[in-house]
Amino acid sequence: MYLDKLTLKNFRNYQNVELSFSPQVNVLIGENAQGKTNLLEAIYVLAMTRSHRTSNERELLMFKQETAIISGEVERKLGKLKLELILSKKGKKAKANHLEQARLSQYIGQLNVILFAPEDLSLVKGAPSVRRKFIDMEFGQIDPHYLHNLSQYKAVLKQRNKYLKQIQAKKTTDLVLLEVLSDQLAAFGAEIVVRRLKFLAKLERYAQDIQKDITQSKEKLTFEYESSVTGVMDKTVEELYQKMRRYLTENSKKEIFQGTTLYGPHRDDVRFLINTRNVQTYGSQGQQRTTALAVKLAEIELMRDETGEYPILLLDDVLSELDGDRQTHLLKTIQNKVQTFLTTPSLSEVTRQLINDPKIFKITQGKVVLQEEE
Fold it and tell me: Given pLDDT bands bounded at 50, 70 and 90, which one contains residue 374?
């Protein structure tokens, strides 16, 4: 799959822009604060219906504008797909081939993207919430059932936490609703964890090969899922549901005391191990970065495996954060395989040698000009 055309109207600092892209590598060159990342963000929002940079969607609208429109033409194996996302202060509307989608979860997954930005290098050493977000965003694109269960889980979790606080404050003594919410949470949570384990096992296999290649077979990378509920491995959905349900029931007094839900996939984490040692704790910065790179590149193969098509890769100024060897491995991996959008202040000589016939765009204050390579 690749994005053939992109049209922006009143998005960030782009008033009216229409662009055609190469199915291979597209390089966006410009100084800071000119709009390079805004352009990548637009592609990401078109795919995911949300920004990776802000939760305040009003920031996506050009100053003093009421509506922004992102539309794109996507080439897929099954043919051309027209996508459109309308953003306003009242909400969002998503269309696929001119048909408005009843739910955003039905829309997500029609354009698959992988974003790799400097902050993704903190995937390994960052907080558990960083890894949970990574899992949920990527797996949600390739599995609508995962996305549906996650959405339902978050809604029930919010309601359950609110009710726990009401019981804590003695505004109610009725525990029947808490039991009902616990049952719903366990049901959705079991589905989420089973699907997480399935996808993580596949992702691990791809990441192991990449890590082995980058380190010349010196490092073996493995994943370890850390659940707030013990003994989740190799469990069916029903078995896991029963276990989660029991955890929530047995620990309800503790949760009431703390006013929050202590068990479930919203508390889980993934550990990355190199040669059986936790790379978060014992790994060097180089090992942590190599692991993050291996995991992100493994995503590309996982998406192809699950959807039958390669996703679009968005590289937001990430090359400057990688040394020469890792830059080389990244660029060689994506060449002639994945449509790539790469932002950079300027193209280095090394990068020019590694990228075949890139399409280069110069961006200045929201204006985009196609350049011929010098």
Answer: very low
Task: Measure the N-to-C terminal CA separation of the chain; round to a whole number of Å.
Answer: 29
Residue 36 assigned ligand-binding role:
yes
Bridge partners for 68 per DSSP: 87
Alpha helix stretches (DSSP H) within the chain? 36-48, 104-107, 128-142, 144-168, 176-214, 237-250, 252-258, 279-282, 285-307, 324-334, 349-354
pLDDT single digits (tens) 137-179: 889 999 989 999 999 999 999 999 999 999 999 888 889 999 9
| Amino acid at residue number 106 | Q
Between CA 123 and CA 20 the distance in angstroms is 32
Is pLDDT at 81 greater than 60 in this prediction? Answer: yes
Q: Is 31 annotated as a binding residue?
A: yes
- The pairs formed by 369-374 with CB atoms below 8 angstroms and a separation of 24 or more are 371/29
For residues 211 and 343, membership in a common domain is answered with: no
Q: What is the mean pLDDT of residues 36-42?
A: 94
Residues 187 and 303 in one domain: yes
User: What's the mean per-residue pLDDT of the chain?
Assistant: 91
What secondary structure letter does DSSP report for 373? Answer: -
Q: Is 33 within any annotated ligand binding site?
A: yes
Instruction: Report whether 37 belongs to an annotated binding site.
Output: yes
Sheet holding 269-274, edge to edge: 221-226, 269-274, 277-278
Confidence of residue 320 (pLDDT cuts 50, 70, 90): confident
Residue 226 maps to a domain: yes
Using only C-alpha atoms, the chain has a radius of gyration, in whole angstroms, of 22
Encoded amino acid at 98, one letter: H
Are 94 and 192 in a shared domain?
no
Asked whether residue 32 is marked as a ligand-binding residue, the answer is yes
pLDDT tens digits for range 268-288? 999 999 999 999 989 888 889
Q: What is the DSSP string of 166-188?
A: HHHTTS----HHHHHHHHHHHHH
Alpha helices in 144-268 (DSSP H): 144-168, 176-214, 237-250, 252-258
Average pLDDT over residues 335-361: 83
Same-domain pairing of 301 and 329: no
Cβ atoms of 137 and 147 closer than 8 Å: no
